[in-house]
Design a protein that fits this description.
There is one protein chain. The chain has helices at 32-46, 51-58, 62-69, 77-87, and strands at 6-9, 25-28, 113-116, 121-125, 133-142, 147-150, 158-165, 168-172, 178-180, 185-189, 194-198, 204-216. With 217 residues, the protein is of the alpha+beta class. It has two domains: 6-94, Orthogonal Bundle (434 Repressor (Amino-terminal Domain)), CATH 1.10.260; 132-216, Jelly Rolls (Sandwich). The strands form three sheets. It has a six-stranded antiparallel β-sheet, with no helix packed on it. Strands 6-11-8-9 form a four-stranded antiparallel β-sheet, with no helix packed on it. A two-stranded antiparallel ribbon has the order 1-2. It is globular, with a radius of gyration of 17 Å. It starts with 5 loop residues before the first strand and ends with a strand.
């Protein structure tokens, strides 16, 4: 992939597990720490939360939140989801920067790419974060035989996935796993815990349309 990006190691726990010790890192364009710092501080203060209160709501420690707000580190994808859920905002609100006018060209070289599990899972935004919207569009990549777990999103959130390459198993809540091959698609309620598992021997590529119950941005 042609993205210009840097690896920023996270020392924070994900999904309630012990400290990741660098196993889960977000790879991002160089300005991402500053964008996250600004957006978290703005969203937290707008809602009247102290760092202590947001730590209690999100399950992310005050020290960790403080490191994000000072731009010293970029958290894991799971940590960002916890913070977004605690603030009651879409994930993309934490990544938004600048203002888009009329038309936006999204260059691959400038893409915001989030990756976890030592690069075995990555998510690339295929939309501008700044406009109000009900829908978001992502490219997902899963390494061979890798499983990625996702926490439940905001109530009313839906995911529509299309498999472009590979064979992937999707599990939603307590439902039986569903196997999708290239060209297959699935629509599901994403306010339940869910997972994506590549059951093939090559990288899987998926395209995700995420729809929110209320406009975001």
């Amino acid at each position: 992939m042609p993205e210009k990006r840097i690896a920023v190691r996270s020392v924070w726990p994900i999904m309630g597990m012990p400290d990741a010790s660098g196993d889960d890192a977000i790879e991002a364009v160089a300005e991402l720490p500053a964008i996250l710092a600004h957006n978290l501080r703005r969203l937290r203060t707008r809602q009247g939360h102290s760092l202590e209160r947001l730590a209690r709501l999100s399950g992310v420690s005050r020290a960790m939140l403080g490191q994000i707000e000072t731009g010293k580190s970029v958290p894991t994808i799971s940590t960002l989801w916890k913070i977004a859920l605690a603030l009651g905002v879409p994930f993309a609100h934490l990544l938004a920067a600048g203002k888009v006018q009329h038309m936006a060209v999204l260059r691959a070289s400038d893409a915001k790419v989030l990756s976890s599990s030592r690069g075995q899972f990555s998510s690339r935004a295929l939309f501008p974060f700044e406009d109000e919207r009900h829908v978001e569009f992502y490219e997902l990549r899963l390494a061979a035989r890798h499983r990625e777990d996702a926490t439940a999103h905001q109530p009313g959130t839906r995911e529509n996935l299309l498999v472009a390459h590979g064979v992937v198993e999707i599990t939603v809540g307590l439902n039986a796993p569903c196997v999708l091959a290239a060209g297959d698609a699935i629509l599901f309620e994403a306010d339940l815990a869910h997972s994506y598992r590549n059951i093939g021997d090559t990288e899987a590529v998926l395209y995700l349309v995420m729809t929110y119950a209320s406009p975001v941005g």
